[in-house]
Amino acid sequence: WADVARVLERLADRADEIGDRVAAGIRLARTQSQRLSGGERAARAYEGVLRVAPSHPEAMDFLTGFYSANERWAELVGLYERELAAKKANETELVGDMLQIAMLYWKKLAHSRAADPWFSRIAKVEPANEALLAFYRDYCASLGDDGRLMDVLGAAQRSLKDGSKEKAQIAGELAHLAEGQANAQKAIEQYKAVLRNDPDNTEAREK
Description:
It is built from twelve helices and no strands. It has helices spanning about 1-15, 20-35, 40-50, 55-70, 75-85, 95-110, 110-125, 130-145, 145-160, 165-180, 185-195, 200-205. The N and C termini lie far apart (about 75 Å). The relative contact order is 0.06.
């Protein structure tokens, strides 16, 4: 099987037709994985397949499982970023893909600065996304940037349905932030917004 793998490797690198290179790369990866117990080599073969056939289902499935099982988060996020770059779709259709990348940067790589641009893209199409709001509450707190958090929450508030509990909750949060910035008028406006969405809110009524 080692000899077979060497032949397939040459074909995957040098075949004239892209289809032939993909087919040889897939056979090489399967040989490494199933016959030679070479997970790392199989991963390299599948990465080679993706260089000529982005988003190839078998290659993506193997590499996603392999990188996740081995907690190789940087390689996994790179895999997803390359897959996303190859997709032809609008931002709304890509929210799930972008969220996957953003969450990996934030939760697995602890790299909030790298997650920020992805969450910013999500905010343009889903400003009230729960994971997005959780990220910016955490990220802005670490930066001491209440102003930016208020902008994010304000966009979320405008996108939510009047009378919803979520809108009332965000209004209350904005009111607290405005008080922290000594912006009494802004705080009053937000407490009024709380009462419009939650007339029985005790804190807002007492303000």
